[in-house]
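User: My advisor, Dr. K., asked me to get a structural model of this assembly before our group meeting. I'm new to this, so sorry if the format is off. These are the inputs:
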Amino acid sequence: MAERNSWSLSGALRGMFAKKTIDDETWDDLETALITGDFGIDVTDQIVGDLRTKVSRYNTTDPKDLQRMLRETLEERFSKLDPTLKLTERPAVVLVVGVNGVGKTTTIGKFAKFLGNYNRTVVVGAADTFRAAAVEQVATWAERAGAHIVRPQQEGQDPASVAFQTVEYAKRNNIEIAIIDTAGRLQTKGGLMDELTKIRRVIEKQAPVAEVLLVLDATTGQNGLLQAEAFIEHAGVTGLVLTKLDGSAKAGFVLAVQERTGIPIKLIGQGEGINDLTGFTPHVFVQNLIG
Amino acid sequence: MATFGNLSDRLADTFRNLRTKGKLSPADVDGTVREIRRALLDADVALDVVKDFTGKVRERALGDEVNKALNPAQQVVQIVNEELIAILGGEARRINFAKKAPTVIMLAGLQGAGKTTLAGKLAKWLAKDNHTPLLVAADLQRPNAVQQLQVVGGQAGVAVYAPEPGNGVGNPVKVAKDSIKWAIDKQYDVVIVDTAGRLGVDADMMKQAADIRKAVDPDEVLFVIDAMIGQDAVATAKAFQAGVDFTGVVLTKLDGDARGGAALSVASVTGRPIIFASTGESLDDFEPFYPDRMASRILDLGDILTLIEQAQGAFDEEEAKKVAEKFRTDSFTLEDFLGQMQQLRGAGSLKKMIGMLPGAGAMREQLDNFDEREIVRTEAIIQSMTKAERQNPKLLNGSRRVRIARGSGMTVTDVNQLVQRFEQAAKMMKTVARGGVPQIPGMGPIPGAGFAGRGKVQPKKKGSKSGNPAKRAVENAALASGEKLPGAAGAGSGGGSGFGLGSGSGAGADAGAAGGPSEKELESLQKFLRR
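Assistant: The format is fine. Below is the predicted structure of the whole assembly, which you can bring to the meeting.
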């Protein structure tokens, strides 16, 4: 796979920064790189405009300066929000939501393990009662992570009741953190989105919801924004999880999501292994992004 | 904000400005092309594809064919449409079946693209066509993917070959290879191999996919891709083309609100046709992909053909004729209406149907708010009536209405509204059935060769069975009711269910003459007609 480098943003940028001076081509390349990184046309225009102003203000022609400025700009924009997870309540209830196939279940498995590494006791609620074999899938992950699991008592049980039982289980057994899996749903399905609202409402009868994590697939394009808006409206999202960052996608759209919605990125997933989940660090993220 | 509203909406906006002009200056063309570029980028079409596309459109738009045309603006629309179709693959392609059974179809794609679900849909679709498909569980990676395929296979009523438990145990290449022998033995005529999701950059996994391909020598390799994917679509598609050299593409999750981009990029970059489109979570939400329809959809010309086909599938032709006759003779009763509604529900989601109508882009928001349960509530009211009452609504006096309201869990006002609206609708239908022209909004102002041909098909079909206008009216009714009340319960929603019928008469008659359309409705109607 010799092409691998040319996919990544850093590949696209390398040619640009290797040159001696900044010229029109540099700006074109920068624009291209940002657009292909899924930053979206609006953010791209902003960043390019912003950098043009800076470059002319500092009167520099060295691409190295431009590279540094790009990094600073991105870092600054990414680090505006606080990425720490707030899991102080006991039990701390974490609801995981997202569209189909973004990696919610896998993320839960990794997250349970992640918390286990900090010696937290975890129970996972398999409230995806819709998709075929989803319960088994999350159960397998829970087992790998050494977490408890609450399964639906019958097939097709109301997800809200599974969520309720999970929280109940956590309270009864003094488990610190309850993570609740939900079925994937496209943000355009009104009925399913209402279901999320209901799940949340039902949980809150027992304990406040500490975090609602929206899982976003890094390969998603500008639709990620629409996803975020819809889930924020219906489920009150408090943090974003970015998955599949081990692929070739750059997930630039999250910048727009974070800025537009004010919801910070909290976790990132970079592989199928159980330990491939880390907290979000703007510095590292930008470093990986632009190389 | 620019990012909100999708490709159809954006292009529609662009063209609205263009249509009002009699002549195109180069500046107009440039402005339009810029808008198209932005719209396509917002829709996640890959940058290279966008550049290419806008280049072609600009060149042709500045050429002679446009200036000689009677209406240059329409000509540009036509050009964009043609270019879109050209990229999306021209003619629709079907699956190539092997001369000697079994036909082997392999599925490949990123994680979470929807391969396993698609395998079930494809199997069910093939089974309906009198094939005997066999699903092969060669995704041994993801936890419980094998179980998922088994459940899906059970739902689709087809056999599943799953010798290995999965969860990392077993060799997918061997499973795939053995499945062919098994299929020949047991005489299955199509083998569908579900593989694990893999990233384009994962060399090992791509190698494995290539090995599976070699082992089963498939007649079709379908690359399954999520319609929501962004700029990475190109890199991923290229990687899979290099890895497994797929022969066709399946676009999934088209029922979301991201729809144009990936299709355009992948088709354009790989030159492989998109064969199927997957549009929902039910195993029946699956259809062949029609490039021209997709282009029309992107251009917001609606997807009338699919709509007609779906409606025809569910609509009993005989029944439709009977209904048309009833309209004419003024003997259409609430009972017939109930029957129609139930048929409609058989046709699938109303929302989906409305979404395919031209101009529906403008109403997408209302559509989203529409609660399909409204239909159920209306049904409940009708079902709470006696047979005599359904046939003769004039019987309904006060006490009967109270009884019906109680029986259906609605209020008397709701019942009143339903009856009133029904009468208006029936009256309107009568005019339609007697030869009034029930135009489809949005069809008028867009000529253009490709589309004109279809335009002719439409009225013919309608002439033969005028059940269609009725259906359309009901849909519009449903839409309007949704618009009034975003999913609320109680008295308000009851009003909506009844109300729906009335505005159906308005929208159905296309002039908004009947019923008492609210301001919001009028506005949406006008939007409808402007196209």
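One thing worth pointing out at the meeting: Chain B has three domains: 4-88, 103-289, 315-432.

User: Perfect, thanks a lot.
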